[in-house]
Amino acid sequence: MSKRIVVDPITRIEGHLRIEVVVDDNNVVKEAYSSSTLWRGIETILKGRDPRDAGFFTQRICGVCTYSHYRAGIMAVEDALGINPPLNAKLVRSLMNMALYLHDHPVHFYHLHGLDWVDVVSALKADPHKAADEAFKYSSNPMACGADDLVETQKKVAAFVKKGNLGPFANAYWGHKTYRFTPEQNLIALSHYLKALEMQRIAAQMMAIFGGKQPHPQSLTVGGVTCIMDLQDPARLGEFLTKFKEMADFVNRAYYPDLVMAGKAYAGEASVNAGLGTANLMTSKEFLVNGSEYLFDSGIILNGDISKVFEIDEDKITEEATHSWYVDNEPLHPYDGKTNPKYTGFKDAQTQNGKGEMEDTKVLQVEGKYSWIKSPRYNGKPMQVGPLSNIVINYAKGNKKVTKVVDQFLKDTGLPLKAVFSTLGRTAARMIEAKIVADNGLEAFNSLISNLKVDDSTYTSYQIDKNKEYKGRFLGNAPRGILSHWTRIKNGVIENWQAVVPSTWNAGPKDSKGARGPYEESLVGLKIEDLSQPLEIIRVIHSFDPCIACAVHMMDTKGNELSQYKVDLSCFC
Amino acid sequence: MEQEKLYQSLSDRLGKLSKFPRMKDDGKSIASLLEEHGFSRRDFMKWAASMTALLALPASFTPLMAQAAELTDRLPVIWLHMAECTGCSESLLRSDAPTIDSLIFDYISLEYHETLMAAAGWQAEETLESSIKKYKGRYVLMVEGGIPSGESSFYLTVGPKGQTGESHAKEAADNALAIFAIGTCSSFGGVQAAAPNPTNAQPLHKVTQKPVINVPGCPPSEKNIVGNVLQYILFGTLPALDAYNRPKWAYGKRIHDQCERRGHFDAGEFVQEFGDEGAKKGYCLYKVGCKGPYTFNNCSRERFNQHTSWPVQAGHGCIGCSEPDFWDKMGPFESPLADRLYHSVFRGLGADATADKIGATILTVTALGIAAHAAISVIKKPKE
């Protein structure tokens, strides 16, 4: 008999996410449902406001990818108004995006996703001296893995556990059968967990040098950037450079080796070596490094066929709401989206709780509407977005900066290329993306320095003509994948705004044809050891790096009354 | 005399607190715990001194501050996420040098925090329930995010039983020792409560009868988050608050009055457009929309990310993010308030409505006064 399992809240993510699965007698997932349980409505709020303010509102979609929606909001307006900001501004924006990636990816791996791979309690049994030797298997110069560091780490954790009050580590799945690291490997990763807490402050400072603060930097403006004084201060530039190098060092000496270690240790763990889910992949070009070149190129791969990469046709992007809590179901292009909330709620059922008993629960009404996230589609198909898509597409296109790191990683782990198409692959691709940024990003910094010698402009003037209608969009990559914002401006104010966000692409529900979204698809076929401790589900979902606040907002349709909440939702970053 | 009294009352308070049962009964002295975390007593006292200064207390209070920090391990903390962006949690993570802040972070015993906790699903829900029960009346509640309320409360549900965020927040607030609204959303409703507030998002103080200390900012700096917990431990009662229930030590001074560009304001030297010559010289940002004159916070003194910078240093005006309803009252963010034209901030009076038609809110009057200064001082200034 099939059983329904509810996991809510999915913790260690941004936002409010519920996952439900149906398993058969062998505990294999037969069907899955992804639902966002929060709706905020930021696009509706944008209607009627000054287009120059849009970026500040969209920024508050998410405080984790705190820069992504800010830049997108500013650049969508620039696109609409036909503004071309100076090169200095473009390069600063690119560097700030790098600072975000170098913050976001390590924090995701160590502090959000890490505890799915690392058994904290097991690390107590490790021999720190053996662990110190072990670290050299994955790096010729490992970081924070000397016997001294590891003894200290172990002491800290032992003291913490002994207190009998685990605080944020309480009530987790320690000892679960699918944890594959040895105690020594767990200790190495744990040491990096602590080190990364320290490093993320440095990455945040990098952003703040040009951005004023992080989270929520405040130095972008329609037309350019405002941090001209920081750009004209060599000491300030030196600070950025130093912090960038410190982060790059961490990526190369901790993050990369830890993924090699995971690749080897988890090679035999079935629950992470499948779960590609949706095999249609999409990415945008990103990280301008000089006047014309980008680190990553855009493209689309269909059905996992890496022999062909297609270009993106923006007109083929639609969103629909067959299974989303909105009135209008039909697929529409983001410029014309409609959304009118229609909450239908949960129904009562008995499901298995965390103790293995049946308990009264509220479950999704899956035959009808069951999420605040819409279903974006490309040419009618679900698409997976994120680092995996970005890396695979660029690998397929022969981007040398990408093939070099991917080939090295496969060699170091002994994994075949197809291993990338998995939960483990998604997690590894995120690290690979960070490493490519860390190894090549300073090209943008050097271009900025060269340009500053001859050009000190940071801002392009513009006028908004109140008698004119404008339409524009932003398309680029955020840490979780391709992000787009779409706007119409009329009477000098925002007429319509819509964001189609990475986590919307990945976390959306089924469409009218019953095609699953990527989260859902990736769970089907997954075997769960212990239904009361569904660590496997959490691990698969975390590998996408969910960012649910991004997914949850709505949009006004052209001409609709605000009071009626006509909206057009989308985002999940 | 006053100072002695204050010192005495704080001492008494801490004396009482030290009689609270320990949460972690391992019989260890604070000194050995500090040592385990790699801190010398000297580091700790240095940190306590800097925290004392931050809270605007006399230096002689430093030992009390140290004692307060040591006592934080009596304090379980429950942190709830409502309708939010997690920016406030991210800000907490930036908790900075001296790294002893992270020690405090360990010590406050974070019982429930969805972004950081290892448990998920049923286990997470159980942790929340059991923490509320176990530490009833003894825990500190921190809430991040606005709260979809009343008939709109369904816009946020949490947990396998599909409870609304509002009911979670109410229950946690009812049983808390002290309640902090972390960030502008929880303090004042925030971005989702901006007009037309489609989800009826409300601040925390609207969903509970209990007193709430507001720690606004979008997000507030980690110093203001951590500092307020210490403030509470020290005083035992609500700290001195302003009209919006913001602790005065952090929100008592106007940004404009402490601003590094203030001299340029007084001299009538303004950035007229981003990227112009004035921008390169660090002139005042009032004319490109700085809301520092209407905003109370310590950004200009403390800055962000270990004092790396703050918006005004990065050449952008303040947007007033720690003021009530700033999303509706402070826009457009890149023009002076007196110039604003856009309708949404006035709840639909139309795109042609000007500030004059809207009527003289205190804010607008102030704005006009400041604008007058800006205009007059420019006239007075001899041409370069």
Written overview of the protein:
The complex is a heterodimer of chains A (573) and B (384). In chain A, helix 4 runs antiparallel to helix 16. Residues 554-573 of chain A have low confidence and may be disordered. In chain A, the strands form seven sheets. Chain A has a three-stranded antiparallel sheet. A three-stranded mixed sheet of chain A has the order 9-6-14. Chain A has helices at 42-46, 54-59, 68-81, 87-117, 128-135, 147-162, 183-211, 228-231, 234-265, 387-396, 400-413, 423-440, 442-454, 502-507, 518-523, 535-542, 548-551, and strands spanning 3-7, 17-23, 29-36, 220-221, 224-225, 281-283, 286-288, 294-296, 299-301, 317-320, 346-352, 358-364, 375-378, 384-385, 470-478, 481-490, 493-500. Chain A is built from 17 helices and 17 strands. The two termini of chain A are 37 Å apart. By secondary structure, chain A is of the alpha+beta class. Chain B is of the alpha/beta class and 384 residues long. Chain B folds into two domains: 2-251, Rossmann fold, CATH 3.40.50.700; 255-339, Cytochrome-c3 Hydrogenase, Chain A, domain 2. In chain B, the strands form three sheets. Chain B has a five-stranded parallel sheet with strand order 2-1-3-7-9, sandwiched between helices. Chain B has a two-stranded antiparallel sheet with strand order 4-8. In chain B, strands 5-6 form a two-stranded antiparallel sheet. The interface between A and B is large, with 114 and 100 residues.
State the separation between the terminal residues of chain A, measured CA to CA: 37 Å
At CATH level 3, the topology of the largest domain in chain B is Rossmann fold
Rg of chain B, nearest Å = 23 Å
Largest β-sheet summary of chain B: 5 strands, parallel
Strand content of chain B: 5-15%
| Total E-strand runs of chain A | 17
Q: Give me the secondary-structure category of chain B.
A: alpha/beta
Low-confidence segments of chain B, ≥5 residues, pLDDT <50? Answer: 23-27, 97-101, 341-365, 378-384
Helix content of chain A: 25-40%
Strand order of the largest sheet of chain A: 1-2-3
> How far do the termini of chain B sit from each other?
53 Å
CATH homology-level superfamily of the largest domain in chain B: NADH:ubiquinone oxidoreductase-like, 20kDa subunit
Q: Reading side by side through the largest sheet of chain B, how are the strands ordered? A: 2-1-3-7-9
H and E string of chain B: HHHHEHHEHEEEEHEHEEHHHHHHHHH
CATH architecture descriptor of the largest domain in chain B: 3-Layer(aba) Sandwich
Shape descriptor of chain A reads: globular
Helix share, percent of chain B: 40-55%
Number of helices of chain B: 18
Which strand-content bin applies to the residues of chain A?
15-25%
Low-confidence stretches of chain A: 554-573
